[in-house]
Amino acid sequence: MAKGYWIAHVRVRDPERYKDYVAANAVAFKKYNARFIIRGGKFEQRAGANNGDRHVVIEFESYDVARACYDSAEYKAAAAIRDEAADATVVIVEGYDG
What contacts 21, CB < 8 A, 6 or more positions away? Predict the structure, then answer.
């Protein structure tokens, strides 16, 4: 079965409040056994529009689990904090199982 992934591009507006989001999202990520593949770090914008200053890829057991995490009460609470602190684009993608 193919894994599921969140791909997020984030522009942090309030770094102190964003720390609260990071603490809050840990509850959902632990519950759904999320694993960070990319969490910030150095990057180069090579093409396209600049979609943020922070890029994140999170791996889940499956696409359905990735969706369930995003839709969970635990993550919704964290996302409310995220929206106060940052502008984010989040895409849930099914991994390649070829």
Answer: 78, 81, 82, 85, 86
